[in-house]
Amino acid sequence: xxxxxxxxxxxxxxxxxxxxxxxxxxxxxxxxxxxxxxxxxxxxxxxxxxxxxxxxxxxxxxxxxxxxxxxxxxxxxxxxxxxxxxxxxxxxxxxxxxxxxxxxxxxxxxxxxxxxxxxxxxxxxxxxxxxxxxxxxxxxxxxxxxxxxxxxxxxxxxxxxxxxxxxxxxxxxxxxxxxxxxxxxxxxxxxxxxxxxxxxxxxxxxxxxxxxxxxx
Length: 216
Fold this sequence. Notes:
Elements (H helix, E strand, L loop, with lengths): L2 E6 L3 H12 L4 E7 L2 H11 L3 E4 L8 H9 L8 E6 L4 H10 L3 E4 L4 H12 L4 E2 L5 H11 L12 H11 L4 H8 L3 H14 L5 H10 L5
Parallel strand pairs: 1-2, 1-3, 3-4, 4-5, 5-6
Helix pairs in contact: 2-3, 3-4, 4-6, 6-10, 7-9, 7-10, 8-9
């Protein structure tokens, strides 16, 4: 199936560049473009894209608030959002994740990385740019997830093991190799972990693991 993409960036050249790269792919289609966060919210609600590629600093409404309106807690039928920004600042990453973004990339990433990010987020997985390190996620974990009694007691020892490997940044294939399991089995474990802990995606799983001391 074709992944329908909405591109939102206040710089016309970047917006056009992204759209050209995306539309050249047989499995991706740009269904709309806009230059501010308010327009992104309106277009997303009208067009129903599979994913929004969202800039941060924009007029009228910034990308963080637009992300919150489209993918934040309590939003019915949330839209997947991949935040792409020039600014590699800790606070932007924290705000984007808290607002509900499923991915975060820098604009200087090569086209292949942008396309990979779109496909990854559209598939229901989550993506953090390589520049967004484990230390950064760990630093903001306490702020992203409120303190409380950890629910990981509901996880089996194997599920805890998989959760720790997710938090260390391993992909499903890498986890499968480490634990000598099939990728399908790993996918099942990941799905169970997210369901049991009431987490949206792998980004929240990483944050949860740091917040509750499962990874240091």
